[in-house]
Amino acid sequence: MSLISVQHGGLGDVDGVVPVLDSESGGGLLELGVEYNCSPVLNHTERALSLFERVAYMPVFIVGLLFNVTALCIFCRLKRWTDTHIYMFSLLVADFLAIIFLPFRILETFCPIKPSELCTFLLCTQYSNMYSSIFTITAISIHRFIAVRFPFLTKTLASKSKMIATSKCIFIWTIIMVICASNYEDLLPDKLQTCYDRILTKKLDKTFFLLLEILGYLIPVLIVILCSTQTIYILIRSLKHVQGRDKVERKNIAAIITANMFTFIVCFTPVHIGLLLQYVKSDDSSKDFVHVFLDVAEWIATTNCCLDSIGYYFLLKRVDKRENRSY
Known about the structure:
two-stranded antiparallel sheet
């Protein structure tokens, strides 16, 4: 997540200003205040990281856009929505929003953008999308566990399942917006070195930091691990009672849930370790290490936008087959 980055090179002189038409003055030019520098002064580490970001983010954008647009088309053709579809659609929205704003991050690697209100918006958007994904994946894990562990309860609540799923998704997005609005000051231009890089000496507010680490990561990752492992255990234990196609599908579902769990851990753990390192760092001796660690961790977190659309699509497809045969 970009709001926790450290210094990524000086801004130097401003090389460009993005103008917009001023409709009130009859079509004259009005500066939007978005300034950029295409000739930043970078050291060896910063140049290497800039090259890494150019090479790494472009494939994520192309593949992520392709996968998420495909998934969106599939959802648009759905005739019968279930509670699982609603969770998946909420996850798709978060991933899709992250992908469509990714070109600004790619532009930043070529021409760093001077901190402005646009940067605050981009940071807020990426922050919101990342934690919306985390919370929605957590909700999906809970939903799958309840469906497998308490099948009779699931059938009893079947008529209300879509309303419950919709309410949970709305609640998730509401919480994210409230947290973002409450900590808006941590994302203001005066706290940024460049558009995606916080000034090293200006740490996140302690309350905001604890919210990101505990509510945003520790609690969700524990829930995902607990629910996923229990669901896998139940599915594996049930294999001795089934045969044929049902047995194969249960094995496949268990494998997909396992892959989703490890994907969640791999994608979101490094960036929160980096956030912790950036918060507790008290000297400049480890600045380069934290800088490199955070840049790579942010890219890893971004790849989740591509992986979600693969893993959860196949999980959705197989689970729906089982549900259709149960009626």
